[in-house]
């Protein structure tokens, strides 16, 4: 198990939104899907767009730069132009705090 690092608070990420943060030197996007919190790589595998600044629709985030789409629950590409999946990270919510496990 990797280290859990506090990355955000629930009040920073209302349901249906996302947040771009840095965790242990890594760009990470955190998503609130109807109260469930997910985290994945925050830099689009297409051209490096900030996924935490994208539009979240259900479980799909759209990169703000070129429109690539990813399933935030799995990191899988669901729409071009990206061809490579994003890594996902374990999330632990304790009270208001959101911690992300990076290894």
Sheet-strand content, in percent, reads: over 45%
| Shape by Cα distribution | globular
Structural class: mainly beta
What's the CATH H-level homologous superfamily? Answer: Rieske [2Fe-2S] iron-sulphur domain
Instruction: Calculate the mean pLDDT score and round it.
Output: 96
Largest sheet: 6 strands, antiparallel
The unreliable regions are none
Tally the helices: what do you get?
0
How many domains would you count in the coordinates? 1
What's the CATH topology name? Rieske Iron-sulfur Protein
Could you tell me the radius of gyration in angstroms? 12 Å
Distance between the termini: 7 Å
- Widest sheet: strand order? 1-10-9-4-3-2
The helicity comes to under 10%
Describe how the helices and strands are arranged.
Blueprint: E1 3-9, E2 18-23, E3 26-33, E4 36-41, E5 55-57, E6 60-62, E7 69-71, E8 77-79, E9 88-94, E10 97-102
Antiparallel strand pairs: 1-10, 2-3, 3-4, 4-9, 5-6, 6-7, 7-8, 9-10
